What does this fold into?
Amino acid sequence: MNKSLAFGEKNYNYYSAYLRKKYHGKNVYKVIVDAGFTCPNRDGSKGYGGCAYCNVDSFTPQSRNLEGFREQIVYSMERAAKNYKAEKFIIYFQPNTNTYAPVDELKKIYDEALSIHPEKIVGLSVGTRPDCIDLKKIKLLESYQNKGLDVDLEMGMESIYDKTLVDINRGCSHEEFVEAMQLLENTSLEICIHTILGLPGESREMLLAYANEINKFPQIKFVKFHHLHIVEGSILGVKYKRNPFTV
It folds into this structure.
């Protein structure tokens, strides 16, 4: 069924249209929060420098330089209400790996974020990696659903091919993604996965195989199909400048 959007029709369930329908026409806006997490692929646990395509500053909120993430949230809410007429908000922990801490520390951070204008907050969105999820963290996230919030867990699959994952310094295998999906098999969380289409060495046929792999996991509710873009300051950006490859 086509979805009506301001700029035309799409023959898939487009996220902004989905949110508008789900929240009865309210304008719902994701507030990006940088809570100061790092990543096992940056702090030496698995590697240094992060994934080859990643430059955290490229998707870090403008409010990052404020004193703390409480100030970030207040600033972003006010800005979204003014500029985009946002009425309700989803608190979105996006930069780095936002389950990369002990459960009690995660709970303190999530609780504080959700205590800011709680009457305006309808959801919690947490971005992470497959190797930074366990049953205790899943139960913690599920507990916020008992408080009436919608909770989605965003996880980077990126590629289904281990050679590609090694080439981009992902520090995580596809088998680890599959294991995470098994942990989440019966979860009530809304699972969103990220893919990157166009990574070096992957053909059109290889990309189309992503769909079959994704469809193996009915717990996946959303998919972000990113095209590859080469970001200034990333490892991939340096490699591209030295030896340009086809994109």
User: Anything to note?
Assistant: The radius of gyration is 18 Å. Residues 69-84 form the longest helix (16 residues). The chain has a mean pLDDT of 90. The beta strands are 3-5, 8-10, 28-33, 88-93, 121-128, 150-158, 190-197, 220-227.
